[in-house]
Write a structure and sequence with these properties.
By secondary structure, this protein is an alpha/beta fold. Helices cover about 25% and strands about 25% of the residues. The strands form two sheets. It has a seven-stranded mixed β-sheet, with helices on both faces. Strands 9-10-8-11-14-13-12 form a seven-stranded mixed β-sheet. It binds NADP nicotinamide-adenine-dinucleotide phosphate.
Amino acid sequence: MEICILGATGLVGTELLGLIARAWPGATLHLFASRARKISVAGAPFVVRAASDLEGGDAPRGDLAFVALDDHHSAHYCPRLLELGYRVVDKSNTYRLDPHVPLVVAGVNHSEVREGTRLVANPNCTTIPLTLALAPIHRRWGIASVQVSTYQAISGAGAATLDTFLEGSKTGYDRADRLGSNFDPSGYAGNVVPHAGNTDDSGFSSEELKLVRESRKILAADDLSISAQCCRVPVAVGHYEQVWLTTKRPTSLENLETLLEDGARSPWVKLWRGASGEGLSSLATTQHRDHALAGRMRPQLDDTTGTQYCMTVAADNLRLGAATNAVRVAASWFPAVDPSLAATPS
Ligand SMILES: NC(=O)c1ccc[n+]([C@@H]2O[C@H](COP(=O)([O-])OP(=O)(O)OC[C@H]3O[C@@H](n4cnc5c(N)ncnc54)[C@H](OP(=O)(O)O)[C@@H]3O)[C@@H](O)[C@H]2O)c1
């Protein structure tokens, strides 16, 4: 098997290297980034070529390509990879709402990846865990509405932003100052800021609209009433989401918890039973990197209908929220040796 990673030196690309070794051991890798160089990941050396080499007549052909580039470069390289014969999983926003391209969460709608499918879009890092937790509830009782508030880690913005954040955190906490006045009020270090990029006339940012529109597409629920508010918190890895939902048909807390801890009906979800959510944190996601963590399930205080609930969903944004889902999606075409990287749990 010949596998190509575009963006192999980035945060998501680096995670893909480890997962591919588990899913398809022995595969031949073709790695690309902005420029050629040698890299070392977990002590193993890799040769990276410049992505511009893909333009030439001697570009390597192959079976499967993961594209972990920004939107602009994805739009440029995905068509070329398809031309070279690869089946492509694209991690950017470029094709997610294209009606001709399936937007897939393994464990929710992976049946949309068929033998003839050549290009699949991987959803945003908040959408993947949210839809994994919502899909079983939606299948069983229907979901009428969802409100989500996200607390997103800095690594979601890529390696350069993460490095700036880590450096800023060090220098910001350097001075003994209980008010944190050493931090830049417009920066990420020591701060919580709105995830406000590309806020449009609706008043919602692109990150908020991704969560809304992608969830509707994945759950095949055009009528789903869903709203989101997103912010970034000073955490390196691990997105945390607070969710308020209303089911179409009444249920109970016990029914919801039983459903979400059933791996067959709620694939890739790990439930923390109980309202307090003890142990459910953004950093807990780095111990359970390939699952959506769900917990703090409880009925809303004033609900008398059995339809209104609160819960928390968290996930490692680099793994479940990005690389792991991409590998599980591709496992629909090329079965993975490691069962934890199959499209659904065995
Ligand atoms: N980080 C997350 O949590 C997350 C989650 C879900 C989806 N995504 C999406 O996944 C994609 C990658 O994210 P990331 O966090 O891995 O980004 P990243 O850490 O910033 O890495 C970006 C990659 O793109 C490469 N690149 C930059 N300019 C290029 C060019 N002109 N030609 C070819 N390659 C170029 C970089 O190579 P160099 O090292 O040579 O610059 C690097 O390998 C983005 O679309 C992002 O939105 C990210």
